[in-house]
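4.2 Preliminary Data

To establish feasibility before requesting continued support, the project team ran the inverse folding procedure on a target of 388 residues. The structure was first converted into the token representation described in Section 3, and no sequence information of any kind was made available to the design step. The complete token record follows.
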């Protein structure tokens, strides 16, 4: 789950992390009035969408008068903002953040994330703030500094000072950096985050540290413990199919291909997409129905796959452990009847009750292509889509 920048900064304020004063606005008049309440200017008007690179796309602008804030907000609201993270379709701007400007001296980068290599929360820092961290990692990896945090100890002052020195912070800024970093760590743990990124963290010309932008990612499985954060979810920023899938306990991610995938188990789903690519096709989605899927859930999964107009064929790849092949087969048939399936359908079943499942499919009278093994299934669906 992701949230908007203005929501992220509200959370950081609760943990005592320094951020600029600002307010979210939904029209130009409101933006003008809030600018006057905040300060005498200048101000920054920032489009609020779930994507990075907003500045390059025209979604972050400086305004020196309250009227300029109003006009800038009017221009942004309703625009389709395209960045490297939105894709060519872009996202519609429905709200803007108006906040005080600041005298930027130096831009830095800070993030906290779960490092799967060490199984620890890790702080990453770089002197290259304001840039995409992926670009920094590719071109100048020596400019990225890391501190792995022992879970029973937490982020220590020593680690914070070590990071501060690596970033070139000295004197009073060192103590400010220690306080800020520990505040970020408390935020990360307290909110069950999967990612907390500050880019840029600025050193102002007045000698202060300020989080100029903030991005959060939350562990979806822990959101139930944070109802206030759950209420921040903006469904308009998410893929409608992914939202619908979550209502049925389905793990679904849209992709750009034309072969829909219905699989049980995340690992098998990844392997299925790989073998489709290896066979010359392109998967249209990642969809894991889970180990205990019901007939109803399988039916909903089919509906979600077929709601993507790019889907020209479907591959069902099931390994029955907890999930029984006959249940999947019944669900496939029921779904095919309900949605009036008109695209090629290849089904590969293995595991518990596999013979019974194949009998059910064979007796259905539907045009279902049976497959033996993953390679056979991938080849058949790719060929069927090409011939359709």
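Position-by-position output of the design step:
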């Amino acid at each position: 789950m992701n949230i908007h920048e203005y929501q992220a900064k509200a959370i950081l304020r609760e943990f005592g992390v320094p951020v600029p004063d600002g307010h979210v606005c939904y029209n130009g008049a409101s933006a003008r009035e809030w600018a006057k309440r905040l300060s005498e200017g200048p101000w920054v008007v920032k489009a609020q969408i779930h994507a990075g690179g907003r500045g390059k796309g025209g979604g972050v602008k400086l305004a020196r008068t309250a009227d300029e804030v109003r006009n800038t907000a009017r221009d942004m609201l309703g625009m389709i903002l395209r960045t490297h993270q939105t894709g060519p379709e872009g996202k519609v701007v429905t709200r803007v953040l108006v906040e005080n400007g600041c005298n930027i001296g130096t831009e830095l980068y800070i993030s906290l994330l779960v490092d799967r290599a060490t199984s620890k929360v890790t702080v990453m820092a770089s002197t290259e703030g304001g840039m995409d961290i992926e670009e920094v990692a590719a071109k100048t990896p020596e400019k990225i500094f890391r501190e792995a945090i022992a879970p029973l100890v937490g982020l220590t002052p020593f680690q914070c000072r070590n990071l501060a020195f690596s970033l070139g912070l000295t004197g009073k800024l060192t103590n400010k950096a220690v306080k800020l970093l520990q505040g970020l760590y408390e935020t990360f743990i307290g909110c069950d985050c999967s990612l907390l990124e500050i880019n840029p963290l600025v050193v102002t010309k007045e000698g202060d540290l300020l989080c100029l932008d903030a991005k959060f990612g939350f562990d979806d499985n822990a959101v139930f413990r944070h109802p206030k954060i759950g209420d921040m979810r903006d469904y308009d920023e998410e893929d409608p199919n992914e939202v619908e899938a979550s209502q049925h306990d389905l793990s679904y991610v849209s992709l750009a291909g034309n072969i829909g995938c219905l699989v049980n188990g995340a690992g098998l789903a990844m392997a299925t997409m790989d073998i489709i690519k290896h066979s010359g096709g392109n998967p249209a989605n990642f969809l894991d129905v889970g180990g205990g899927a019901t007939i109803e859930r399988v039916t909903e999964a089919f509906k979600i796959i077929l709601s993507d107009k790019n889907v020209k064929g479907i591959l069902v790849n099931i390994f029955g452990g907890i999930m029984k092949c006959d249940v999947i087969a019944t669900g496939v048939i029921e779904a095919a009847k309900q949605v009036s399936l008109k695209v090629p359908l290849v089904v590969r079943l293995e595991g518990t009750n596999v013979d019974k499942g194949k009998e059910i499919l064979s007796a259905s009278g539907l045009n279902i292509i049976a497959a033996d093994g993953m390679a056979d299934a991938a080849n058949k669906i790719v060929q069927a889509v090409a011939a359709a």
